[in-house]
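Quick one: structure tokens for this chain, please?
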Amino acid sequence: MNAPLKLYFSPGACSLASHIALLEAGLEFTTEKVDLAAKKTEAGTDFNTINPKGYVPALAIGDDILTEGTAVMQFIADKVPTKNLAPAAGSVERYRLQEWLGFINSEVHKPLGALFGKPSEEVRNSTVERVLKRVAYIDGKLAGRDFLLGDAFTVVDGYLFTVLGWTKFVGVDISAYPNVGAFLGRVAGRPAVQAALKAEGLLS
């Protein structure tokens, strides 16, 4: 018997990528919203007792808790291998997925997230320059392909979609990158992505 799954999320945060993965996988799960400022769940629980790191996502697997989005997404993908949300463990392609997850985590997620903290103009300008270099790299890699690993959607595509969605909130213009723009449109149109956005109150 599979342990019940529960995703702790904050609307539009990086946990959206795990939410998308769960829906793409067709798994049964419940969710609970987290107020990250107050560190309280919707039910009034101190979120630090669930994840002492204090941030989302946190995936409850029965009585266990898995944190870090890059791990959570791969766990979800491996639960339903027939959905092909990640290449097979041990394959070169799986390490390519992990390479992309690590790159997005450190080179896109982290600097874009820092812009929400309203840094000084000097820090902001250097951060935006760094982000746009990375977006240009991604744009080149998306030339001639629908998704980061080729023709098939994987969990890393949901992750990139999530973090690049923050650009409009922090004033980073990525309209000069057509392959990225087309990619974002393709991902946004997926039924699971639409369902995740609606469930988090991000779409009416």
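The chain has a mean pLDDT of 97.
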